[in-house]
Amino acid sequence: MNNSRLTLFQFAMIFVSFLFFSISGEAQSGEVCYNPNLVKDTSKKSIKSMAAGVIGKDSVKISYHSPAVRKRVIWGGLVPYDEVWVTGAHDATTVEIARPFIIGGKEIPAGKYALFTIPGKKEWTVIINEKWQQHLASEYDKKEDVVRIKVKPQKHSLTERLQYFIEGSNDKDGKIAMAWEKIRIEFPVTIKK
Description:
By secondary structure, the chain is mainly beta. The protein has two domains: 1-31; 36-191, no CATH class. The protein has one helix and ten strands, in the order αββββββββββ. The chain has one helix spanning 2-29; strands at residues 47-55, 58-66, 93-97, 101-103, 106-108, 111-118, 124-129, 145-151, 154-168, 173-191. Mean pLDDT is 86; it is low at 1-29.
């Protein structure tokens, strides 16, 4: 009788373990990476990533796919100059801010937006577009731009995988930055109080 209880208990434990590992395996395949440059780069795929931070007291979230350099020519090669770029891979990079905010002197309602850029050799255009559900830049329409600003690319140490940063500086001001290969761009964001 004790043996049958033990067997039943063992069966229950095996079943629970199987269930746990099945569920956790599914969760891992859909996980989001917060620092793609800390992940051992064994995948040739772009990693589903997110940057989350606070500017003032308000949350800012950027969702993107992080491609790797992998010894490729990035600027003027994989990413052409003077063309609209998703500034990541696959779906449009999105910026989500819970309160109204200001970029380039333009007040933008709270919400979720697509972030595109037009890389140039000496100057980039950063675009906030109202249609956040887009694949690459194939559905991009300039008529849906909320704001465009010009920024200067800065030299930066090698960043193997594209990565976004949210940096707060005081109770309402901060910046969003992106680094990849040996370039970094950034632009100011003010949270409307």
